[in-house]
Amino acid sequence: MIRYDLQRNFGIPKKGGKMENIKIMPCLDMKEGRVVKGIHFIDLKDAGDPVENAAFYEKEGADELAMLDIAATVENRKTRLEWVKNVSSVIHIPLTVGGGISSLEDIELILKAGASKISMNSAAVKKPDLVRQAAKEFGEEKVTIAIDARRNKEMPSGFELVVSGGTQPFGKDAVAWAKECENLGAGVILPTSMDGDGTQAGYDLEFTKAISEAVHLPVVASGGAGKLEHFYEGVVKGGAQILLAASVFHFRILKIREVKAYLFKMGVQVIL
User: Fold this and answer.
1) Alpha helix locations (H) across the chain?
2) Which neighbouring-strand residues pair with 199?
3) What are the residue ranges spanned by the domains of the chain?
């Protein structure tokens, strides 16, 4: 009954009459070949070797893995393909790669390097038609759009789009941009609140919910998970289907299996 109520009240998607499993996605933020993690996208700390982390997370029960080259756009370069190859070679779960992607050629190279999906942010904002072209060329399921935002009362939704690794406000409503991305053919929306990133104070549920209610695509809750309750809230209050976290996993504050066991106990359908 709890699972039914979750689907009915909080919009967990169904396919073929069955509920979809909620997925746990650790995120490897990459810089200079190492996994790093900061607060509000700054004050970065080393969080280990990406290959070791990737293998560990798959063994721990991760459903998917994200790897974001956080300095690529700021440094005006492409994603390091060797990082993609090294990480993809040790896992079998889907790998979403983002950072420095600005063309169909970039996408093709990253997918050939072993990624299952790509994630675009700044390039999609500056060249929206790239989203449409990518979805047509590679399939909607391969295209994730990452949306970084911060609170701004002047925006209709209250959230302003931020680009270039969270460094530049763009003057565009973040929720309106999510709708536009859906219309362009994106397959997944990955919103991150700069107000919550790395704080471990909980997902920005208001922002996550605003996105999940605006689109009919899977939404990834991202930025701020710090304790078990936060993951549950991401599903039932934020409407997310995928729960991304970094700090709590990198610094071994929580284990993936621990999170899944808690969600299962609370009536959320997960793969244990």
Assistant:
1) 2-10, 50-60, 81-88, 104-112, 122-126, 129-138, 174-184, 205-214, 228-236, 247-250, 256-265
2) none
3) 21-254
Contacts of 191 (CB under 8 A, 6+ apart): 146, 147, 148, 149, 174, 178, 207, 208, 211, 219, 220, 222
Q: Which residues of 11-20 are buried (b: 16+ CB within 10 A; e: fewer)?
A: bbeeeeeeee
In the CATH hierarchy, which top-level class contains the domain 21-254? alpha beta
**Structural contact between residues 176 and 145, judged by C-beta atoms closer than 8 angstroms:** no
Instruction: Check: CB of residue 92 under 8 Å from CB of residue 61.
Output: no
Active site residues: 29, 148
Whole-number Å distance between alpha carbons of 35 and 18? 36
**Per-residue pLDDT in tens (0 to 9) along the chain, 272 residues:** 233 334 433 335 443 445 689 999 999 998 888 888 765 555 677 778 999 999 999 999 999 999 988 777 667 667 789 999 999 999 999 999 998 899 999 999 999 999 999 999 989 999 999 999 999 999 999 999 999 999 999 999 999 999 876 678 899 999 999 999 999 999 999 998 887 655 678 999 999 999 999 999 999 999 889 999 999 999 999 999 999 999 899 999 999 999 999 999 999 999 98
